[in-house]
Known about the structure:
The protein has 486 residues and is of the alpha/beta class.
Amino acid sequence: MAVKKFAPTGIIDIGSNSVRFVAYGGTPRVPSTLFNEKVMAALGRGLAKDGRLEQASMELTLQALARFRQLGREMGLKTLHTVATAAVRDATNGPDFLKQIKSVGLKPRILSGEEEAELSGLGVISAIPKANGIVADLGGGSLELIGVARGAAGDGVSLPLGVLRVGKSTTNELDKAIRDGLKGSLLKDAARGHGLYLVGGSFRALALLDMKTLGHPLPIVHHHRILPERIADLRAIVDTLPTDELKSLTGISSGRLPTLPTALNILEAMSDVLGPKRILVSAFGLREGLLYRDLDAPTRAEDPLLAAALEVGERLGRFGDHGALLDQWLDPLFPDESPDLQRLRLAACLLGDIAWNAHPDYRADRAVDMAVHGNWVGIDSHGRAVLGRALASAFGDDGEFSLKLASLLRPGEDERVRAWGKAIRLAQRLSGGTEALLRKTDIGLSKGKIVLAMPTRQRELYSDAVERRLNQLGKAMGREAEVRFT
């Protein structure tokens, strides 16, 4: 299995609330973020007043764009996309501002509301391939809604309901605005019984607030589920806690905190009108959708978690990738696993050599940190805990796994996933972390035993260290361990 290479690409996103520059590299299916910087220019603030971009916001934006262009040149980016959304699109002085942007040396493209919705939908599909329902992308100047199902985005709409634009509109007023905006559209029923997928910095801030105040064991917002009944609780928290306490508790930026009440109103209105079964937050949105749209069909079809794990495993492993072979090798030990567990086990095997160069006493800590806090998509907090537990065991941590993380595991999973790690640990010791030697052996279950089979001519591979790890695996699985030479 080979990792495809991705030429460094940058995107400058001139939004209504923030102006952001992101540089990407790594694998094309799930590019790694090489650099990420935003400036809270609040371009959309003037739209609600007089329909024009404010001079101070334009000057701040131009300063940021000049910096971003220079950074992109020094980074040697192959491509630099520059896109502008609702604020520039709708402002009466938007065309004049575009000319100023061009004078900086950039070639901006204004996205229509429909294209903005499409790209946000594709971004969610990129991160959550089985997304089914409506994607809602909330910016400073607009709210984009688009249906997603079966790996495709449908028709979308753009509503002038951004957090900087609606001011102190009540939930009832927003209800009516959303209903009016969806009249005659199939979108009005697309989320009923399905999902509402939230995109945008204000929604991610709400998710972080929700997780922090609930004491969530792993406050990573991607794939976090916000329960509708929590909206009232979050409103009470935002209304009563001083701004400095909110910032200290959540780490949300000062520029984002003032938008939280409006974002809550919009979320509540969408929940009322659209009637979703579940509300999930996506870390991917317009920018990732822009990259995803340019992929060929086979690359789009790749599993985002496994594609990223393969790239990281190959880059950090000692002797190149052999995670897929490792998974095949230990598969006979776990014949009754669900497809979801099999997928997570493969991801653990792809990452099974990522911490070899750390100090021996801290290899498990590094592996767990990368598994649990890695910039993965296509995975929820439960999946992250599974990967962390497996890699802790694979790198020799026989102590207590974090109780907070362990609480995310399902009944009976700790023992099973710990056994994955023991099997990975055995395989790496037996083969020295190489593919060719692992191919010469087999392991499986036979009459209540774990049996390691090796050719007699390879007998010298079976050392005391290998025997210890085989016995450790047997103990973890409650079976006697045996080696057979053939």
